[in-house]
Automatic annotation (TrEMBL):
Pathway assigned to this chain's UniProt record: Lipid metabolism; fatty acid beta-oxidation
UniProt family annotation: Belongs to the enoyl-CoA hydratase/isomerase family.
Organism lineage string: Eukaryota, Viridiplantae, Streptophyta, Embryophyta, Tracheophyta
Keywords: Lipid metabolism
Example of a GO cellular component annotation carried by this entry: peroxisome
Secretion signal span: none
GO BP terms: fatty acid beta-oxidation
Keyword set includes Ligase: no
Gene Ontology terms, MF aspect: delta(3)-delta(2)-enoyl-CoA isomerase activity
Reactions listed under catalytic activity: a (3Z)-enoyl-CoA = a 4-saturated (2E)-enoyl-CoA; a (3E)-enoyl-CoA = a 4-saturated (2E)-enoyl-CoA
Pfam families assigned: ECH_1 (PF00378)
Protein name, per record: Delta(3)-Delta(2)-enoyl-CoA isomerase
CDD domains: crotonase-like
Annotated source species: Cynara cardunculus var. scolymus
Cross-referenced InterPro entries: ClpP/crotonase-like_dom_sf (IPR029045), Enoyl-CoA_hydra/iso (IPR001753)
Length: 240
């Protein structure tokens, strides 16, 4: 599901296996285990990088897995929110090296990091909810508002479901930088990580300052009204 490599003070988590890297409980648990391993091992200034093999960085929620039972979608939402909380609370800078398409929850996973780097030869960022007739959770929007400074860019991402290429994403202020290939994107992420490690910041201070910066996101992670509404509707339906 994922691997974790340590290069000096840089941890690189790579999503492996299924090319789509759909976010189901098994993958989310695997990523969370790696993130918490990084947290437990870190004693010196470090950096955490997330990337992926194949065509996709992540194609979002595993909707095919969840279709048979709404409780499954509730579980996926809960586990993604826990993972995002874990990443936000890491005591070190975090970088997403987006190596392919990042859709919906996959886009959100990337944006949970401090820096997003992306390949420009293939792939796009895509909030697909408008196109697949799903309501965007409030916590998605709160996170995106903290990451995308332009209201027009945010509108185009959420309400137009634009498929944003790396170069366009840089121009719109959605990502940090764009690179020629997946390999070059990871190399650039490592170089950035090395620069950040050299600052020798106190990780716990860094993590606390990030929490201050994302203060409105953290309480929003406690609840996903889109899945709770589905659960309530199913309970009512079962009683009729």
């Amino acid at each position: 599901m994922c691997t974790l490599e340590k290069r000096d003070n840089i941890y690189i988590l790579t999503l492996t296996g299924d090319d789509d890297h759909r976010l189901n409980p098994k993958l989310l648990d695997s990523i969370r285990a790696a993130v918490n391993r990084v947290r437990s091992e870190t004693t010196t200034p470090s950096v955490f990088i997330t990337t992926a093999q194949g065509k996709f960085f992540s194609n979002g929620y595993d909707l095919a897995w969840s279709q048979s039972d709404p409780e499954r979608h509730i579980l996926m939402s809960s586990k993604l929110r826990l993972l995002v909380r874990d990443i936000i609370s890491l005591p070190m800078p975090t970088i997403a090296a987006v190596s392919g398409h990042a859709s919906a929850g996959g886009f959100i996973l990337a944006q949970a990091h401090d820096y997003v780097l992306m390949r420009k030869d293939r792939g796009f960022l895509y909030m697909s909810e408008m196109d697949i007739k799903l309501v965007v959770p409030d916590w998605f929007v709160k996170l995106l508002k903290n990451k995308i400074g332009s209201p027009a860019a945010l509108r185009d991402v959420v309400l137009r479901a634009d498929k944003v290429t790396a170069e366009a994403a840089v121009a719109k202020g959605i990502i940090y930088s764009a690179h020629d290939s997946a390999e070059e994107t990871v190399k650039a992420a490592v170089r950035l990580g090395e620069e950040l490690v050299m600052r020798k910041w106190d990780g716990h201070v860094y993590g606390r300052n990030r929490k201050v910066l994302l203060a409105d996101v953290l309480p929003a992670l406690e609840f996903d009204e889109t899945v709770e509404d589905v659960a309530t509707a199913n309970i009512v339906s079962s009683r009729l």
